Amino acid sequence: MKSELSQQEIDAVFQNTGEPAPRKASDVADFDFGHLDRIPKSQVRAIHLLHENFVRNLSSSLSAYLRSYVALNLVSLEQVSYAEFVDAVSSPTCIAYVGLHPYDGTAVLEMNTGLMFAFIELLLGSKGRAASVVQRKITEIEKNLLQTLMRVILRDLGEAWKTVTEISFLVQSLASEPQSLPVLAPAEAVIVIAIEVHIGSTTGLMNLAIPSIFIKRLRHKFDDVRQVRRAESTVHDQAHVASLLQDASVTFEARIIAGTIRAQTLLKLEIGDVLVLDQALNHPVTGYLNSCDKWLGRIVSSGEKLVFRLE
């Protein structure tokens, strides 16, 4: 069947295919492609817990390795762009680019010069005394010394990450300027873990920057990370603890809190005198274990002895 359109119908078709109606302002939203794609708070808490364990273990490892007391404290954990992290780093500094094998990506470990030279002094046999402030780049010999120290740090970092996944943290290169090797895009998001380090009278910051995209890829693995809970003790464990405690000595006292008396009266007491107390006979007596009140009971006789009966 053949049909023809009238001129009015043709005009109506072309009018409907004209410029689209303007959208309302509420229908349009700006999108910043440089905006950080933040990871969930639950994952941030898991990362914080993971690196708290890392800091505790590293403090012991460095103290044993350097034969000097080293105290570490997790200061902050935040997500920033790599450009912001680089801008906050002083120059010159000690910066290590760390591979995340078998995964793709590179992390960055940074130490300021004061902390770096304090480590070098201890590695060379110093007693840990405060050295003069040095502001210069590290030499090739100093890089070799720091490589051994980095292996201790990264070994403990790998042990801490075992609760999530098996990662080998390996130093790819050491540099004194953060801009010398652009391993990450300026707008790429990184998780920065700031750790305060105390060595004798020297205090400095060690910053670890991990790409956020690497952590997001492991999101499903972080679901299994839980805070360590105390395991139920077995009968064997209880017997072992009991065998260790059976020879321990403690002090027990049964005290009657019964007001005060004059010192003159106390000094004049003789055998056979009766001291009237304010406490009633039916009032319980407090039992103290190592000067801590633990029980209530009564003083009763058992044969020729007085005993403390727990109530």
Description:
The chain is an alpha+beta fold and 311 residues long. It has nine helices and ten strands. The strands form two sheets. It has a six-stranded antiparallel β-sheet with strand order 1-5-6-3-2-4. A hairpin with a 2-residue loop joins strand 5 and strand 6. It is elongated, with a radius of gyration of 36 Å. The protein starts with 6 loop residues before the first helix and ends with a strand.
CATH architecture of the largest domain: 3-Layer(aba) Sandwich
Rg, nearest Å: 36 Å
Q: Termini distance? A: 108 Å
The CATH H-level homologous superfamily of the largest domain: CheC-like
Structural class: alpha+beta
> Which topology of the largest domain does CATH recognise?
Chemotaxis protein chec
Helix content: 25-40%
Largest sheet: 6 strands, antiparallel
Short description:
The chain is an alpha+beta fold and 311 residues long.
Keywords:
single chain; alpha+beta; Chemotaxis protein chec; Surface presentation of antigens (SPOA); 6-stranded antiparallel β-sheet; 9 helices; about 35% helix; about 25% strand
